[in-house]
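pasting input
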Amino acid sequence: MRIFLISIITVLLLSGCWSAVELSDMMLATAIGIDYHDGKFQVTLQVINPSEIAANQDKANRTSVTNYTVEADTFFEAIRRLTATSPRKLFLSHIRVVIYGEGMARRGIADTLDFLMRDHEFRSDFVMTIAKDTTAKKVLGIVSPLENISAEKIYTSIESSEKFWAPTKEVKLDELVNAILSDGKQAVMTGVFIRGDAEKGSTLANVETQDPYATIFVEHIGVFNEDKLIGWLNEDQSKGFNYITDNIASTVGRLIWQDGRYIVLETTSSSTDRSVVIKDDEITITVSVESTANFGEVNADVTFQDQAVIQEIERYAAERLNELLARSIAVAKEFETDIFGFGELIRRDYPHEWEAKYKENWDEYFLTTNIKIDSSVRIEHGGMITNPLYDELIHKQRE
Amino acid sequence: MTEKISSKQFLVLVFMNLLGTSIVFIPSIATSYGQENGWITVLISTIIGMVLILLFNATVSNDDTLDFFSAIDQSVGKIIGNVIIGALIIFAYYTGIANIWALSEFVGLQILMGTPPAAIALISTMTSLIAVRYGIEVIARSIEIFFPFTILSLVLLALLVWPEARLENIEPIMQLNKMSTVIGAIPLVGMTFLEVITLVIILSSVNNRKDGKRAFLYGGLLAGFCMMIVTFASIAVLGVQGTVRHTYPIYVLGQNIRIAQFFERIEVLVAFIWFFTIFFKIATTNFIIVKAVQHLFKLKRHQSISIPVSFLLWTGSVTSFPNVFYDFEAINSTYLVLGFIVGFLIPLFIVVSKKISQLRKT
């Protein structure tokens, strides 16, 4: 009797092994590329080649990742159809990036989002991007130096460039869907593009030279209207976008000082306050940026003995910043989409007016809003040297 | 042999029973009604819940020697008393199968992917059967052990998602959707505080009944507070849309924990909260059904019927729910009505009839 009971209990424990899959039986996918081709979804999956990733092993002459591409009428079908070409079952939990081809993004991405959210294998911590001027398949095909897995490279590039360079934005699935569904905000996504020879870049030869044939760049922010890509912000405009949405950790900006000589400021922190006032049906939004900067590079005829000089530079930098932000806003108005989420600001501060009036046609009202920009820059540190080298050099030359 | 538990154990038991299941469903249900005011909906339902618990407390007499069943028989008579106990059994049964089903669905979908829910339901029901056979003292003591873990997981979850929270998600506070914010409290109360009516049966096992009643209130308050914090965090981190759309927002909340690039992918933290609370809820519910059946049929030992009851719970949980979406429909219709009858009308009836019989005596 006792043995009978024990065996029953042991059998119960086995239920956890119901759909057990051994690690050696599955493929880890790291990136999904989605293109639209002749009325069908063309899905490219990048999977890890485990023996190439493992450390301390003799590496065969193979790439670390392999891409599989299939076409199907729907997104989910395409992913399942991959098993027809791939040797093992796919495991999707380790996806780092999802890349839309530009054509796909312009067509509209709405019908891919439901699956990405619904399927339980996905974790929603991957980054969403667009392959600028190219297809996702090509971007994923580039063999990347340093980082073996190009999906990982794109992910870390976006992360670090958002932190140190600013004109990119790490957009996660949740944020994207919220922005697409929101009435008072439009979506954005960072672009990735290939610089160089894409053909040669997709061979292992790309990492055999010191100067790769092709590299993947992460830059520019794609502007959406609903779920369709309608245009791109250039580098400066993207930076301005991040200033306005308070998404600047650190960046570098150039000031043209006298005679075309320049000072480069390193922004170390920045915070943005946005407020809205509605008076007589006129919407006025104030964006005030407070940023702290260091001198990063000084190649102009200035000396820092006098506080007045520093203050002048601060004032001048603030002016430049105002212009930068104004250009971003002007471009957004040209695209007629409110990517900054000013509509949500109104919803928070004037909820009743928003519900009654602006909610339906916010993109139209957005065009007529007054946006005031008020930046201030404070300079704190000057690096390891005091007065610029330039100062002494120029005097020497004059002698 | 009468089993006794301390009032502190009862407090923890109330806490676990309130959080079981509801902690994963409440954020999305509250938010679907109240939008950005979802956490206020939870707050309102907690206030209503406090009133309900006062009502539940009033149904139990302060006389320590009288257990709940005999007290009911005394105040409303044997026949009506049996009807009331029968209704309690049906309600507890429904709660039980709903919880077992929810647990098996969640585990089957998120943790043991692909394992049939029926197998998970069988294991959890059979584990609760062991608990039931040991009796309420053992259940209460083990809850006491797991309570710190549950609280710790909750606190960790709330603290660790804080860097991801964006407070503008909860603005404007109480400006829009005022009506639905308040109305949303009704289904919330239905799936939380109305369910714990069954705990009055255990209340009579608390050694000091006055302290036990206070513990009932405090346990409810603490659980309501935790639900509010979790809902608040869900809305602040995932946004209104994100909270409403996900079946298990709290799990997605756990997936959002991301500190300094290495402290991530720890959503199993949420599974801890979920496992502990729901298991003890299943065990307690199972125990209550067994106790009530024991009283109805005047059995000597409650263990005699524990096995059939457990199997009924299991089959019920496997066969009663056609699909996931039925769950939300039931919460807003069938379950709410049943909860209202058993959790509100019956205690009200008991209290009123008690008052009347007191008046007659004097």
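fyi The longest helix of chain A spans residues 307-335.
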